[in-house]
Amino acid sequence: MPRLTPLTPDTAVGASRDLLADLVSRHGQIGDMVSTMAHSPAVLGGYLQLSRAMGRAKLDRRISERISIAVQAVQGCGLCLDSHVSAARALGVDEEEIGRAHAGTSADPAIAAIITLALQIHREPTSITDAQVIALRAHGYSDRAIADVVGVVALNILTGAFNLLAGLTPGAGLTAGSDTGA
Questions:
Q1: I want to staple 31 with a disulfide (CB 3.0 to 4.6 A). Which of 125, 157, 169, 175 is the partner?
Q2: Cα separation of 133 and 142, whole Å?
Q3: Could you tell me the pTM of the whole model?
């Protein structure tokens, strides 16, 4: 059961009202995570800005969704995990690779290496080595793509932690998705 009440443009106040009204006018509807984030205009605005910025990431979306699956499997946000699994499927990632991402790896050594980096950023960033970054470059990742991993992880930490705090879980009629959900 949700711990925080979702808001609407009619029930939100100040900057949150404006942000929600803009989202509703552009998308028609908004997800429960976003409408619940409206309790804090700082959190909602920060989420929307980071989400939009990460939409311009250099990292391939099929890879970023696998990173998101790995991070959410650790973090424990079922709503986010379901959203990222659905997105990965829509992008053509097969079920075996989705399962591997859930376990924090990939059959492709280059993707496994970047997922490992993402999980280290999440769990223990001090354990990242120069050799790892050199190996990622050898796999063909640019410095920009490597840096984008931090943004993907940060966005997942924000959304997952928020959903867990708010009590937003899969199946309770809750919606998720990109700028308007999880």
A1: 175
A2: 10
A3: 0.91
